[in-house]
Amino acid sequence: MTPNPFEQRPKREAGAVNLRPKDAATLLLVDRSGSSARVLVGRRGGGHVFMPDLFVFPGGRRDRTDSALPFDTDLHPEVLDRLASAGDAASVRRARGIAMAAVRELHEETGLTIGRLEPCEPSSRLCASLSSLRYVARAITPPGNVRRFDTRFFLTFVDEVGVDPASVRSSDELQDLQWVDMDAATALKMPPITRTILDDVKKLMSADPSLPFGSAGPFYYLRHGRLQRGSI
């Protein structure tokens, strides 16, 4: 039987309104330069309401402005088709916005840039490169949590996006950033769903280390209180 990756979850207060999941995106950034692949993780601060003091991949909620951010290269056609299943213009914009959220959150939380920064007063604006992102998993936080997200998990490789693993920096959102061996990462204190997705990704990469863009990943959600594992 597949373990329930949602079994350890913070309960909402009694009488609270059942929350509708918000779009979110997470990015597994993998360094395959050594003898074993490493993935970037960081610890969420203890002050967070959702998943405090747990190690996660960089990521966060999709902002309304993410769909309007510029990009240098678009998502791979197979990835875009799977994210924007409806195929209309609105779903395509939403799909790009979700992918942009993953790249933007990576930059804000770790200082790493997939793409480039262009001058934009008063600071700078991210112009992302989306073409290397694989869409590897999806999970919807069950009802009863203090926060609910419909999270899409993306993956890309350090050598494909030209970032320097040594240049990571911690932030208020994500601390204790570490490049950890993918086989040892689950020893960290992680949310069950993060550990489950990492195990799924390791299986995908063992079948094909290049992780083709059309690889089918898992989709976790609860229906009538029972764990469902579909495919994206």
How does this model look, in words?
The protein has about 230 residues and is α+β, with helices and mostly antiparallel strands. The protein has 4 helices and 12 strands; from the N terminus they run E-E-E-E-E-H-H-E-E-E-E-H-E-H-E-E. Strands 1, 2, 3, 4, 8, 9, 10, 11 and 12 form a 9-stranded mixed beta sheet that branches. It is globular and about 50 Å long.
Keywords summarizing the entry:
32% strand, nine-stranded mixed beta sheet, 21% helix, three-stranded mixed beta sheet, 4 helices, Nucleoside Triphosphate Pyrophosphohydrolase, alpha+beta, 232 residues
Task: Tell the overall outline.
Answer: globular
What's the assembly state of these chains?
single chain
The mean pLDDT is: 89
Determine and state the CATH class: Alpha Beta
Helical fraction? 10-25%
Superfamily at the CATH H level? Nucleoside Triphosphate Pyrophosphohydrolase
Evaluate the radius of gyration: 17 Å
For the secondary structure, the number of strands is 12
**Helix/strand structural class:** alpha+beta
In CATH terms, what is the architecture?
Alpha-Beta Complex
Number of domains: 1
Blueprint (SSEs and pairs):
Elements: E1 22-31, E2 38-44, E3 55-56, E4 59-61, E5 71-73, H1 77-83, H2 89-110, E6 115-120, E7 123-129, E8 134-140, E9 149-157, H3 158-161, E10 174-181, H4 192-207, E11 218-223, E12 226-231
Parallel strand pairs: 1-9, 5-7, 8-11
Antiparallel strand pairs: 1-2, 1-4, 2-3, 2-10, 6-7, 8-9, 11-12
